[in-house]
Fold this sequence. Notes:
This protein is an alpha/beta fold. It is 38% helix and 22% strand. The protein has helices spanning 8-21, 23-35, 44-56, 118-130, 133-136, 156-164, 173-180, 236-250, 291-312, 331-345, 365-369, 396-415, 420-428, 435-445; strands at 61-65, 69-75, 86-92, 96-97, 110-111, 142-148, 188-190, 193-195, 203-208, 211-220, 261-268, 279-288, 315-322, 350-358, 374-375, 378-380, 382-383, 392-393, 447-452.
Amino acid sequence: MAKATTDKAALKKAVTRIITKRADELIAFARDIGANPEVGFQEFRTSRKLAEAVEKAGQKVERGLAITGFKAKHIFGRDGAQDGPTVAVIAELDSLRVPEHELSNPETGAAHACGHHTQPAQLLGVIAALTDAAISEHLSGSVAFIATPAEEFIDVSARLAAHEAGEIGFMSGKQEMMRLGVFDDIDMAMMVHTSAESGTGKFSVGGSSNAHVVQHVRFIGKAAHAGGAPWDGVNALQAANVALVAVNAQRETFQNSDTVRVHGIITDGGVSVNSVPGQVIYEGRVRGRDSEVVDAAAEKIERCFKAGALAVGGEVKITSIPGYMALENDSLMSEMFAANAEGICGKGSVIRRGPEANRGGSTDMGDLSQIMPVIHPYVSGASGTAHGIDYIITDYKNTVVNAAIAMAHTVIDLLADDAVAGKDVIAKATPPRTRKEYVESQEARMRVIHYRGV
Ligand SMILES: [Zn+2]
Ligand SMILES: [Zn+2]
């Protein structure tokens, strides 16, 4: 006997009701996380607060994944599992450091200048809806609620030290969770990120992001009395200065279509002004539209670091750290999400972008997209400059409540009717690598160049 098809519209209505009823509570949750920002791999309060709320919602939480991450898996269907894919719904936990931001932590400078604090609240909304028995019994497969640390690739010196101490393998949350196998039982994944972009859209889907590599550079000179005998020293700051001038000389060699970005900061520029700097640390980033472009550009930039060391007769130690891969949004899932977002916010409220629309930034959701179908849509409702001092959430209803509803609706589309649509996504997806290939290719990117310009 043929099984009756599920009334998806009725399920979605019920989801909307459940999440809308909790709107105030969810928004308060997001505001609280926003007022207590914590940077990557240090999101202890954020993670604990969210994990406790997830447990309170009846979920068994596996904690301590990639230090502050966690995972909870809910199996759908009546009387035990009904066969089907596992969809991950992801919430990022970390903030940036922007000390001048109005909501920054005065001690650490941490601030949610990228809007990640909306995501734990979205996740709680999705959990409330999808684990409700009246919804859950009509779906197949399962959903994994995953909290991921450290999406912002910052504090490179500290993370490198944690890597060298064996505390982490890869230096971002999703990268490390992939390495640890947290995503091994996941078939597809979604999250929603905030955006302050102008335009009329309430949501946008599609597009891509830059790949990148992280460079931790130690210029090594020799300290000496800066007044009495500077000629006895080797000035590491001058080496860095020459290197950065050389980096700027590369800019005209980059093709527009490759969206190369080269930028960095000096995190240690010397210790005492009356001593010739014997060591300078530069944390840099090379981005481009794919990993091949990044590798080619990074090679040029490495030459510049060597040039600085050569000029002063010092040394340079360049640690090349695997950064992110370019984001590939799954087109079937993107369209499902877009249709659901339009169902919530009205026709014309969703901007659809092609894969050539590269925002220039990078995300470790790009890494995940290399091994499974994913979507990383944007939700409007922020103002100011992303990563700037004035980036704040102005529309919590859209960024938290509507985003949660749109994700829950999309899970319904994927997993109702014996998960026929979810199985179709898997059948049609062509992720470029397996998890093993991903880990191996990233590990191969990790290398140290020690150049002596003496
Ligand atoms: Zn960011
Ligand atoms: Zn972000």
